[in-house]
Amino acid sequence: MRKRVFSGMRPTGRLHIGHLAGALSNWVRLQDDYECFYCIVDWHAMMSEYADTNLIRSNCREVLLDWLGVGLDPDRSTIFLQSHVPQHAELHLALSMIAPLGWLERNPTYKEQIINIQNKDLSTYAFLGYPVLQAADILLYKGDLVPVGEDQSAHLELSREIARRFNYFYGDIFPEPQTLLTETPKVPGTDGRKMSKSYGNAINIADTPDEIWEKLRTMMTDPARERRKDPGNPDKCPVWDIHKVFNRDAEERTRLSDGCRGAGIGCLECKKALFAHLMDLLGPIQERRRAFESREDGVMEVLRKGAKRAGITAKETMSQVIGSVGFVDR
Fold it and tell me: What is the pLDDT of residue 185?
């Protein structure tokens, strides 16, 4: 049997090329070698958006269309909404009973977000306990592997600790999910910071060619290159960082790099070259996305089939959990 992979994304709107370069391109490749469960984790979205949930439904649809556009295949992977499989919430409740408060309070991500996200009140029971729901998402499918970048590998340790604690009390039910390290290149946004929707600096997978060009045209470059005749340094240029991820033409990259350092080309020429490579990549993705978008019944069918397939495994796991803790069988 193939090993099982689980991963998910919060529905916060359309995905950007940073998601494509990192998680999504890896997810597509994993479909060939693993049994993959890919979940849009809408309950997780509510943890931070509880005061205004109006966009969660439409954001789920946008994320799904991006997934299908980049090549996630509902015939090869189980693609579904977290809220469509009620056992996620049920296992979350069971694991909450045994999760020590100290583990959650020491979570560095929780502390970081409480400090950095000032425009929302995150002092809620659910936000403190989000790692427990995250553990439930993974353990419900007895996921062997969770694909993450190296900087995120520590996040899985709490899921392993919760699995070990449950198994200690009630018997060996859950395998401990292991990290599947995947390449996650850093893609800067148009302002040089990490690309993020919340920063307003993202180039989205579904952006039109005009929108993409306008974002590239106005994108910051090497700040020391103030005039066309000034030599530049590609190593200090966010546009060049995106070239390194998406431009596979080594000869052209050498020409652009040398031209920048010697002031033989201007920033606009470099941006035009990047635009061409992005459109070659995104054109087929956007075409597939539009094909699904034009068939609303097809999009909903993907979610129905995914939830049905996920539900089979989820019900089996919860049946084992109910029996192991000593509850009356259903």
Answer: 86
